[in-house]
Structure formats: structure tokens, C-alpha cells
Amino acid sequence: MAENNPTPNPNETQPTPQGNPAPAFDYDKLASLINGKQSVTEDTVLKSYFKEQGLSADEMKQAIGAFKEQKAKNTPDFAKMQSDLENSNKAKLIAEVNQSATLEAVKQGVDIASIPYVLKMADFSAVTADGKINTEKLTEAVKKVLDDVPALKKTADNSAGVQKIGGDGNGTSDGTKQNSSVPTKKWNRFNI
Questions:
Q1: Residue 122: is its pLDDT beyond 80?
Q2: Taking the complete model, does pTM exceed 0.90, yes or no?
Q3: Kind plus residue range of the DSSP H or E element containing 63
Q4: At what angle do helices 27-53 and 57-74 cross, to 10 degrees?
Q5: Whether 35 contacts 42, CB under 8 Å
Q6: Which of 44, 71, 141, 189 is the right S-S partner for 122, CB 3.0 to 4.6 Å?
Q7: How far apart are the C-alpha atoms of 93 and 78, rounded to whole Å?
């Protein structure tokens, strides 16, 4: 009879207390199997439904094709939505830059009729950073245009307010005194 030896033999392999190692899974293959099973199940459910409705195999294929086309049309295009969002943000930023530049041009004394020309000539490429407007660079851009084309600024002649039109009521149109050598009687035709 063989005795049970309590001392282990170093050449023998003994089971480890950790248990059996977990088998390795290929998760991509497992996911494809699950997806394949789901699609087969969906197809069989659809086929049985269409058979209950009395449709032939060709009609089923047409109905499924039409459904897939409709589903593709209703699926949102995220890339297009993202590009539309970026374009609208750019347009909003351009409008804000133009509004700020208009106010800055008015502050610097630009005639209102000349503001569109100032906006077109100004280089606003360095004005925005991370969607925000740098007011110092905006002011510099407007000043550069006005330095290059000083005719865009208001002059004293075209200032706003009440402007003199016609004569001054003393018989002269330029505001100077009347020539005293000319008689001032009403019947004198030289009295202007």
C-alpha cells in the first residue's frame, strides 16, 4: 500500500491556490458574433412579419430597401452639422468685429458715409483670438486705415449740426460787410 507523503516532492506540480487562469477572449470576434446573431434574428422577425402580411420575397426586399433608405435619410449628418455650427460661429464673430469696428471708427471721427470703406480696407485678421475680440488690435487696425487714407476722417466743413445755407440776411452771401460805396436806397439797382 502506498503511503501518503505529507512532504511535497519538488519535481511534482501542485495545483495553485489561485485557481485556473481565465481563458483569453477575442472581444472583437465576440462582438461580431453577437451582431451577426442580432441581424439574423431581426431578419427572421421581419420575414415572418411580412409573410403574415402576405408579401412575397421580392416585395419584402423592396420594403426593407425602402425602409433602409428612409432610415439613412433620417439619420443626421454630424459632420455637416458641425461644419454648419462652425460657419455660423464664424459669421457671428465677423458681425461682432464689424459692429465693434464701426463704433471704433465713429469714436475716431470717421464720417458715417465713409465707415463701410474703412471696414473693407481694415485688416481684421489679427483682431480675433479664440473667438474673442482684442479691442486694442481693432483700434490699431482702424487707425492704420485712417493714417493711410486721412480723407475718410470728418473735416470741419462737413461737420454735423446746423449748416448755413444761402445768404446771411445782410445782402451778402459770404457773410462779409456790404460795400459802403454803393448807395443803399431801395430804388438803386446796384444795391445788392
A1: yes
A2: no
A3: helix 57-74
A4: 120
A5: no
A6: 141
A7: 22
